[in-house]
Amino acid sequence: MRSDPAEFQLVAPGTLQGVVSLLAAEPGAWLPIAGGTDVMVQYAAGKLPAHRLVSIWNLPELRRVEVLPGEIHIGAGCTYTDLRNHAIVANEFSLLARAASWTGGIANQNRGTIGGNIVNASPAADSLPALLVYDAELILVSVRGERRVPYRDFHTGYKQTRLAADELIQSICLSRQFAGYVSYTRKAGARNAQAISKVCVAALGTIRPADGVIENVRIAAGSVAPVPIRLVETERLVMGRMVEPSVLALAQKTAAAEIKPIDDIRSTARYRATVAGNLVEEFLLTLGSGKPAI
Ligand SMILES: Cc1cc2nc3c(=O)[nH]c(=O)nc-3n(C[C@H](O)[C@H](O)[C@H](O)COP(=O)(O)OP(=O)(O)OC[C@H]3O[C@@H](n4cnc5c(N)ncnc54)[C@H](O)[C@@H]3O)c2cc1C
Questions:
Q1: Integer Cα distance of 79 and 62 in angstroms
Q2: Minimal-distance CA residue to ligand 1 atom 43
Q3: Are residues 68 and 48 in the same domain?
Q4: Rounded distance from Cα 40 to ligand 1 centre (Å)
Q5: How would residue 16 be classed by pLDDT, with cut points 50, 70 and 90?
Q6: Mean pLDDT (whole number) for 228-242
Q7: Given this model, what pLDDT does residue 1 score?
Q8: Bridge partner residues of 53 (DSSP)
Q9: How many domains does the chain have?
Q10: pTM of the entire structure?
C-alpha cells in the first residue's frame, strides 16, 4: 500500500553531531536518509520501517575522502559520482570505481551513496564485493563515540547488519596496499546499465615473477548468497599454483560449489553457479596473462 505523506516527518539537523544526538534520544524512532534512492523506493512501496526521517545528505563530515599515507577514509555520504571522480579511488581502488560506474544510471550515481549501499544490505549491492577484497573497515559513529569494525563482519545475514539503532556509518577505510595487484571485476545482469546484478565478482591477485605461481588472491561475489561472500575455498585451492587448464577447471567447479545462490525474479541458482564459475575462470586467465584487467 502507498504511504500517506502526511504521516511522515523529515528533519535536517545539518551536522553529524545533531544527527547522532537525535538518534541517541530515541533509538530506532528516526531513519537516516542519505541519497534516498533506496529509502524512497521503500516509501513508495509503503515499507519504510519508521515515519520519522533524519537527513544525512551532504553532511560535510560524511562527504569527503581523507587520504592518509597508509589508507584512505571514504566518507559514507560520498556518492558514486564522487567516487568515480576521485583520482586515488580511481587509480588505487579501481574495483570500487568500476562498481560505482555501473550502479544504476547517472542520476542514481549523483544521489546514491556508498554508506546507503552498505546499510541497505542487499546481497546484490554492487560496491560490496570490492569492499570484501580490499578488506575494508567501517568507522561507526554515535554519541557514545566511534568504533571500527571489519566490513566482512558487518552483514550478519540477509538484510541484517551490526549497526546499532543510534549509529551511523561515518567512513569506509581502505588500506593502500594493493597497488601492484591485478584487478578484475565483472557484473552479469540483464543489460549493461540500470540492472541489478545476477552475479557480480570482484577479485585481486598477484603472480610471483620467479616461478609464475599465484602468490596472492582475493575473490568475492555478490548475488550468490544471503550476503556478499569471499570465495575462500577457491582462493585456497589456487594459491601457490600456476594458472593452467587443470587449475582453471578445478577453480571453476569449486567456485560454483561454494556459493549458495537461489532462484529468484532475476535469475536461477543454476545460471548463477555457472556464471560465477566462468567469471572466476576469466579472472584467473587475466591474472595469468600478466595484462591489466578491464
Ligand atoms: C533506479 C535505481 C537503480 C539502482 N541501481 C543499483 C545498482 O545497479 N546497484 C546497486 O548496488 N544498487 C542500486 N540501486 C540501489 C541504491 O541506489 C544504492 O543502494 C544506493 O547506494 C543507496 O544509497 P542512498 O544514499 O540513496 O541510501 P538511502 O536510500 O538514503 O538509505 C538506504 C539505507 O541506508 C541507511 N543509511 C544511509 N546512509 C547511512 C549511513 N551513513 N549510516 C547509517 N545508515 C545509513 C538508511 O537509513 C537506509 O536504511 C538502485 C536504486 C535505484 C532507485
A1: 10
A2: 168
A3: no
A4: 9
A5: very high
A6: 97
A7: 63
A8: 10, 31
A9: 3
A10: 0.96
